[in-house]
Amino acid sequence: MSIKSLITRLLALVLVVVVGLTGCSNPETGLSGDYRQDTLTVLDNLNTVIELPEDDPKKSQMQEKARKQINAYVARYRRDNSIAGLRSFTTMRTALNALGGYYNSSSNRPLPEDEKERLKQEFASVERSLELAR
Fold first, then answer.
1. Number of H helices, E strands in the chain
2. pTM recorded for the entire structure
3. CATH fit for domain 26-131, picks 2.170.150.70, 1.20.58.810, 1.10.3720.10, 1.20.1250.20
């Protein structure tokens, strides 16, 4: 085996490791690949977003981040059969669908109070399910 061949293989291995490690997390959405932690992160961020006052200058920026995070979360976990059947995931997905639909269709209007309360109840249900490992 020549030096050139060895260097080429070593470089290929390093490239595979780098791509593999950088693909494990998404710093833009804050998701790590750990279902429980990602769910709690998304819940925390969404609670913050729905509680922001309408006149907050960062509201639209936070809503856009929430929209990206919702999409990344659902895309990451919906195909994982060990997670997709969990009560915490199905409840979370229901809440995310409601909030995502609202943001995609009427982000200029304030989130109605009854919708905020419904989301808070679903978020609390997700947290309870996570504690019970469901």
1. 6, 0
2. 0.73
3. 1.20.58.810
